Every structure is written in C-alpha cells, then in structure tokens.
Amino acid sequence: MTRARPALGTRPARGVRAAAWLLATACCALGAVQYGRASTDSSLDLARDRDTALAAGRQAVAELTSSDAGQADATRARWLAVSGGALHDRLGAGPATDPGVTSRGAVVEAAVTALDAGAGTARLIAVVRVELTPAAGAVTTDRRRLAATLARTGEGWKVTALAAVPVGTA
Questions:
Q1: CATH value at residue 140
Q2: 15 in a structural domain
Q3: Residue 124 within a domain
Q4: Does 20 map to a domain?
C-alpha cells in the first residue's frame, strides 16, 4: 500500500512559517538589545558635543574672518557674539574693521582636533577662503589655515583664541 503525500500548503509550509516567525522575532529582539546599548552609550554624547562644537566653530570662524567696512558696529557685534574670553575682550577694545576693506570668510574645511567635553573645551582647525574687497582696486582671494580654541558657555560654543597655522616645510 502506498501512502498519500501531504498536499502542498499543509505541514511543511507551517514549519517554514514557524521558522520565519522565530527568525523575525530573534532579529527584533537583537535589534532592541542593540538599540538599548547604543542609546546609553557615552560615545554618542561625545559625538554630539563634537558635532555641535564643529558647527559652532565653523560659523564663528566665518564670522571672525568677515567684516564690512561700511558697518563697523554691526561687524563688531557679530564678532562679539561668537567670541569669548580674552579674544572677546580684545575684539571689544580694538577697531572693528580695516577702513575701506570688506572681507567675507567662508570655511572650506574644518575639523575638531581635540575635545574635552567635561571641561567644555575644544580645538578646531579650519581652511578659510577670504575674499577681500578694497574700496578701490580689484577683489583678491586669500586662503588661510586657522586654529581656533573654543569654550562651551551658557550661550553655546564660543571662540576664545584664533591664530594662523603656519604652513609646514617638508
């Protein structure tokens, strides 16, 4: 006597469905565990601090390398808004702009080179393209490498020092 084969869509299909359901449940559980670990990972806070310092530093360096010869008070106000510490004091005391020259700085590249989230300090290096427009004469473009020191304040990250980075001789 021969036995009848089970029809398609009965027992073997139920086994495949059960295996697929178990695999999907295991993947969901693994994903939940990984998400839980990642959401409490302190390196995420450090990455957020780095990204925030980088964005604020890029914006501040662009402001600090820009000036409007016709609006010295507005230029000084922008500089003071993005600076802190000794740099803020120096910018508040000195002349805001070079008379007759307007400059516009644009950060081409920037990177955080050091970050101490606990102390609220960061260092940033940036390449800036500065377009100088004199009252009379041709517009010139200059590329500058700058290093900025930032401090986290109640108002966000502020540049406390800004210096040119010398081009090394190799």
A1: 3.10.450.540
A2: no
A3: yes
A4: no
Q: Which residues span the domain enclosing 131? A: 42-164
pTM, whole model, 2 decimals? 0.73
Q: How many domains does the chain have?
A: 1
Q: What is the full per-residue pLDDT of the chain (170 aa) written as tens digits?
A: 566 665 555 556 777 888 888 899 999 988 888 887 776 666 788 899 999 999 999 999 999 999 998 888 899 999 999 999 999 999 988 766 667 889 999 999 999 999 999 999 999 999 999 999 998 889 999 999 999 999 999 999 999 999 999 877 54
Q: Kindly report each contact of residues 130-138 with a partner whose C-beta sits within 8 Å and lies 24 or more positions away, as own/partner.
A: 130/65, 130/103, 130/104, 130/105, 130/106, 131/103, 131/104, 131/106, 132/101, 132/102, 132/103, 133/101, 133/102, 133/103, 133/104, 134/100, 134/101, 135/69, 135/100, 135/101, 136/100
The reply to whether 11 falls in a domain is: no
DSSP 83: B
